[in-house]
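Q: Hi! First time asking for a complex rather than a single chain. Here are the components, and I think there are two in total. Is that enough to go on?
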Amino acid sequence: MKLANFAATSLLAIAAATAFAGSAAAKTLIYCSEGSPEGFDPAAYTAGTTFDATSRPIFNRLVEFKKGTTEVEAALAESWEVSEDGLTYTFKLRPGVKFHTTDYFTPTRELTADDVVFSFERQGDAKNPWNQYIPGLTFEYYNSMEMASLIKSIEKVDDMTVKFTLNHPEAPFLANLAMDFASIQSKEYADSLDKAGTKENLNSAPVGTGPFKFVAYQKDAVIRYQKNPEYWGTPAKVDDLVFAITTDAAVRLQKLQAGECHIMPFPAPADIAALKADPNLTVMEQPGLNVAYLAYNTETPPFDKPEVRKALNMAMNKQAIVDAVFQGMGEVAKNPIPPTMWSYNNAIEDDKYDPEAAKAALEAAGVKDLSMKIWAMPVQRPYMPNARRVAEMMQEDLSKVGVKVEIVSYEWGEYLKKSMEPGRDGAVILGWTGDNGDPDNFLSVLLSCAGAKEGGANRAFWCNQEFSDLLEKAKQTSDTAERTKLYEQAQVIFKDQAPWDTLAHSTVVLPMSKKVSGYIMSPLGSHAFDTVDIAE
Amino acid sequence: MIRFILGRIAYLVPTLIGITIVAFGFVRVLPGDPVLLMAGERGMSPERYAAVREQLGFDRSLPTQYFDYVWQLLHGNLGVSLVTKKPVLTEFLALFPATIELAVCAIILATVIGVPAGVLAAIKRGSWFDQVTMGTALVGYSMPIFWWGLLLIILFSGTLGWTPVSGRISLMYFFPPVTGFMLIDSLLSGQKGAFTSAASHLILPTIVLATIPLAVIARQTRSAMLEVLGEDYVRTARAKGLPPRRVVGLHALRNALIPVVTTIGLQVGVLMAGAILTETIFSWPGIGKWMVESISRRDYPVVQGGLLLIAVIIMVVNLLVDLLYGLINPRIRHR
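A: Yes, that's all I need. Here is the structure of the assembled complex.
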């Protein structure tokens, strides 16, 4: 079995190698990715690094985000209808979509409703033979989005029509289907693996409908893709796409400058000025769909009083923090959602930086000799280059209004866990990157009463019924203008109650070689290369 | 001799048991829960958390988990990665040649430079050469690998453009791994320029990984040599009027090399430790990099299995060194 697998892999690699050698004059784009993908079945993982290597090049979804926006557009589904009550979604599939022909699989049929039903059912139904096709593999996104309780049934109406029936109306549903976990797999491929007794290959030798097909992966080193000549959409501009896995940011930078790769994500903030000065490079930047915040524990005194929270917010000089830590690659946040998001309430006024007023407000609230903890995350995230430094600046600011701050930190996994423990001591620095461009994806996840329960992500433990009701109402409404109004109102309540000190929205920076053209930055922070061309 | 060998092997059993306990305990003492890391900032409901924990087997008591782990080990099963879901041994075997290749090159470099430097330093004891060599060795020994590696990359790859920045071979070349050793595979591939590319990619990581062993070997050779040069038989040889070159080369060096062989053998552990950092800096896809990524993801089976395999390799090499030492220096056997 093992030997057979090894032989198969070797054969595959040889075949791939010859195919590669044949295309001597091929255009090759090299992307210095920041880490190894966890596997090649996007539904099974939650990391952006994995999605960039799987769902973006190899797969498609029923609907997708229009390049460079968070707008949903047709992809594998040509059109769709939503029932009056918002409970059924009927998708008409695009005819003539071919799955990849690779060295390990030759499809005999085009995309049908069976593939769509297969792709979703395996994620939600524990009894489905493909739910645990590898022991221990779980569908974390599907589960954490509570898709199983949302979706009542997924039916094949005919070969080219699929009907989703929901248990309750949910406005962001369509946007959810554009997310990576909703990538469409080939049922025919899965069946053939099942027959061969090599189910696990679904996660190591992927077959999709996307602009590139998978060629080979050498763990921790390199992933190779080839242009899919039968792509249903606009075909890719380059013939070969290579991910050179380079975990260290300083080394990625050297490789880019040496011309060993063409695009690198996540440069260190300190290097950005040098990158911009390099005449051989272009540095693209765009506001990220994210927010960094400081969440008070609104359940423990004195942070249970909004006036105390607001006073503390006034004591911290956010502009100085953003200038020093984000080094120009970010802007001060006033709302819990970023300004590029629809329904952003620009009329809201931020708590002004005013230490004197803060001092007075604290006194008025009867708070004296306050000592508190500020939690600083131990890792860099797209929304936060250096939490420790932020915490130190807050400590400095707060000491000026007589508040003593102790900075604490834990290992990342521990940090995520402990910061959600009820009765947690102190305020937590954390953040969020949007998954689908819907305000609900920020507000409900991070600030609703449901999220304040154990296992949620509401680290302020803030439960405001009025606020939560607005979110619920907005979720059940399909009219965007109506939803916008509701979210704008919710932001007013948020600012008034101040469960967080909203810190910053970071700018995403992507340096690339001058030879590269056609790259479109995604506000969702994903990387896709089908529109990218490279000059020889 | 056979008793000596068997005695040495018997020593390994309790050590191995100790290593399983350490490897098992180590990953569990580390803060951070693999289940929560899977969910990230999003969080996970308590029911879901419990279900995933159960699936992964972390709901059972630590002793149960440990005995289960040992039971699996006895059946030759090192477990399956929580992240990639592939057998730990399969992943290890695929990545190990890359580490071996680097380590072998490093130890060769360290020996080829370290031994002559040590000998010369000993002969010219107290001279400027001796002082410079030993000073450099001290610096090399205390060099932080991460900083040293980046410095070399910035200088030789960035500024001068002489060597490639990282990886094992230019991405222009693509052929299936046969032996897993890039120097050999690139020759087998028959592609023009592949071997040169593979060799040039080896230069910087080899230098970085060789730095510490080189310093140790040079210092050890020097002191072994000094000791031997003070022995009566050397003085006798000198008194007989033998030319200094023969005294040093024939009489002294041979005996001085006995402890040096042991020192070189013992560098295996140092090399493994160094490989973790070196591979990370140079994006060298070996087991060092694999371990670093697995620790950051709390991939328990990989860390456990990886530590165990590395420990076994170090033990086996040390055993071989011991035996070799016993062979060339019979006094040891009867100790």
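A: The CA atoms of residues 49 and 55 of chain B lie 10 Å apart. Let me know if you'd like any chain examined more closely.
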